[in-house]
Amino acid sequence: MQRASNQPAERVTDSGVSSGIATAKRSETGPLRVVICGGGSGGLVLATALADKNGRNPNYAVTLVDPTATHVWKPLLHEFASGSADASFHEVAFIALARWHGFHFAQGPLEAIDREKREVLIGAAHDETGAELAPPRRLPYDVLVIAVGGVTNDFNIPGVRENAYFLDGAVDAERLHRRIVQACMRANHGLDAGVQHLDIAIVGGGATGVELAAELRATTRELLAYGLDNLDPEKFIRLKVINADPRLLLQLPERIASSVEEILHKLNVDVLNGQMVTEVTPGRIMTKSGESIASDITIWAAGVKAPGFLANIGGLETNRANQIVVTPTLQTTRDPNIFAIGDCAAAPWLGTDKLVPPRAQAAYQQARYLLKAIPRSAAGELLKPFSYNDLGSLVSLGGQSAVGTLMGLARGAGIRIEGFLAQMIYRWLYKRHQAALYGWWAVSLDSIGGWMRRVTRPQVKVH
């Protein structure tokens, strides 16, 4: 691999033609130092593939940075929150993955980028009690990949941060689940005098809000069957989805969104479309239309933005949503040695006037693209632009049901699927993600183990 030039990045056309070469600058000797900040769907897949299993790739020294110690697949968070899945069975330690695949893991938050010295500044890592696990560090890089994902967007609406639950990680999901279980326990034993209902309001009519509503209805029926004899599961828990948009699931065709809304009604979930929330207070949600909606537990799932600390980090160009602006080759506009992928990147969707949407499938595709682009950039080769292929969207509706489209929503050729088949494809997407980390043989054994756990454990998490 040759030493790259210091030329500034240039925009690459849709055809992949560029008048200059935006390449990664490597160190004088030794392997190319690749630092990946963020262990989500994109960052972790890239780290494991680029490092090669057991560290057999001597051309790269890969370091993965993440503030947490474990990885979970974010599309499972609504199942953790409802209790239909236990996070402890799906978490995997980054340090174990690093050992298996041959990359290094550095726990701590990304705090700054020193582009002149080509170093990232990592903050101290702490455990759940606040005790320090690792001090602040500076990590040198030749190539930096920012894949820190997104966080819930509260749109600066008063009271949301203080009075609503978010689903940004497994800790948030577990906290929400405990709150629901504890509320049911207290009501069952009459500890909350006069409480006849538990009102749960989910703000947001996208996939997260819809999936959580359906999953909560399915699992609370199971939960209340575990000895909570004084509660009627259909009457005690009242579920609402409050949606600012005119209909649910704008990313899906209207006919499918209408079908989903009918299913939610059958599950006794109220859907309030066209209701923009203006304030969240303890026990109440206020809307622009003047309505006051009762809500003992408010869950905010109304949008995603990049983390605030990314705004102008390292002098890089960012947009109003704190996303790092990148070229069609996923390189940042001000530094060709820095790439950004996933929810935190404002990447152009070639052939449209839109950005690549914040979806797990997009992060996965971008990671696979960088697996080839980083070596080519380091070798001084021209990079072809990243082309996002929309494979459709699936929405899980609890139990063994799902609905969605496959094969090309963007091209208008979506195929509608639903029911058991859709649920199986939804599950397969997770198995594919696991296979990228462990291999298909290990995933097969894990699936057998998962089936055995379901036979010997409660159907829902009851604590």
The tally of strands reads 28
**Radius of gyration, whole Å:** 23 Å
Helix content: 25-40%
Low-confidence stretches: 1-22, 408-412
Please report the number of helical segments: 12
Tally of discrete structural domains: 2
Euclidean distance between termini CA atoms: 54 Å
User: Which fold name corresponds to the CATH topology of the largest domain?
Assistant: FAD/NAD(P)-binding domain
The portion of residues forming beta strands comes to 15-25%
Report the mean per-residue pLDDT as an integer.
85
Class derived from helix and strand content: alpha/beta
Return the CATH architecture of the largest domain. 3-Layer(bba) Sandwich
Instruction: Give the biggest sheet.
Output: 6 strands, mixed
Shape annotation: globular
Q: How is the quaternary structure best described?
A: single chain
CATH class of the largest domain: Alpha Beta
> What topology, given as strand order, has the largest sheet?
5-2-1-11-24-23
What is the fold's blueprint, element by element?
Layout lengths: L31 E6 L5 H9 L8 E7 L3 E2 L5 H6 L4 H4 L1 E2 H8 L2 E4 L2 E5 L4 E4 L2 E2 L5 E3 L2 E4 L2 E4 L4 E2 L7 H4 E2 L4 H19 L9 E6 L3 H17 L9 H4 E7 L10 H13 L2 E5 L3 E5 L1 E5 L4 E4 L1 E4 L3 E2 L18 E2 L5 E2 L2 E6 L4 E2 L13 H19 L13 E5 L5 E5 L8 E4 H20 L1 H17 L7
Parallel strand pairs: 1-2, 1-11, 2-5, 11-24, 13-20, 14-15, 14-20, 15-16, 22-25
Antiparallel strand pairs: 3-4, 6-7, 7-10, 8-9, 12-21, 17-18, 18-19, 23-24, 26-27, 27-28
Helix pairs in contact: 1-10, 11-12
Structural write-up:
With 463 residues, the protein is α/β, with parallel strands linked by helices. The chain folds into two domains: 32-150 and 306-378, FAD/NAD(P)-binding domain (3-Layer(bba) Sandwich); 152-304 and 393-456, FAD/NAD(P)-binding domain, CATH 3.50.50.100. It has helices at 43-51, 77-82, 87-90, 94-101, 160-163, 170-188, 207-223, 233-236, 254-266, 360-378, 419-438, 440-456, and strands spanning 32-37, 60-66, 70-71, 92-93, 104-107, 110-114, 119-122, 125-126, 132-134, 137-140, 143-146, 151-152, 164-165, 198-203, 237-243, 269-273, 277-281, 283-287, 292-295, 297-300, 304-305, 324-325, 331-332, 335-340, 345-346, 392-396, 402-406, 415-418. A six-stranded mixed β-sheet has the order 5-2-1-11-24-23. The longest helix is centred in the C-terminal third of the chain and has 20 residues, at 419-438. It is globular and about 70 Å long. The protein starts with 31 loop residues before the first strand and ends in a 7-residue tail after the last helix. The model is unreliable at 1-22 and 408-412 (pLDDT under 50).
